[in-house]
Design brief:
Strand 1 (60-70) and strand 2 (76-86) form a beta hairpin. Strands 1-2-3-4-5 form a 5-stranded antiparallel β-sheet, covered by helices on one side. By secondary structure, it is α+β, with helices and mostly antiparallel strands. The protein contains 2 helices and 5 strands. It has helices spanning 6-24, 39-55, and strands spanning 60-70, 76-86, 94-101, 109-113, 121-125.
């Protein structure tokens, strides 16, 4: 077990969660049709519209993941995470990340309410602090 100060632990968890959630919840900002001036632009628009259509209607998902954090000194920190995501109406999705390992982050939960046209709302529960 590594010796990490409590503030470093919280910072490490928070940074890991921000990076992970940002990658997990990347979405298109708008579904409005752009002005189309060329064949290339029309093709690009069709591809993006199809991508958006396929991304809609997935309802919910659950995944077990392993996160490997490689530090500058070459050490690796391995975290086991379970994520549960519910698709909401109008792109307003909700996701929970549960950290299972290692022991210093076990029980940490990260909740995100995603909104397509405004900032997401996020909360983190830190069991060591017994607070959100």
């Amino acid at each position: 077990m590594t010796n990490i100060l409590p503030n470093e632990k919280i910072l490490s968890i928070t940074l890991s969660l921000i990076i992970f959630v940002t990658a997990l919840s990347a979405r298109l900002a708008s579904a409005e049709q752009p002005s189309i001036e060329s064949d290339q632009a029309q093709k690009a628009y069709r591809i993006m519209a199809e991508s958006d259509r396929r991304d809609d209607g997935w309802q919910d998902s659950t995944a077990n993941m392993t996160m490997i954090i490689r530090r500058a000194d070459g050490r690796e920190v391995i975290r086991e995470v379970t994520t549960k995501t519910l698709e909401g109406e109008n792109g307003q999705d909700k996701s929970l990340l549960f950290f299972a390992k290692p022991l210093d982050v076990k029980g940490t939960v990260f909740l995100t309410h995603s909104f397509p046209l405004e900032a997401d709302k996020q909360w983190i529960y830190l069991p060591s602090q017994n607070r959100v």
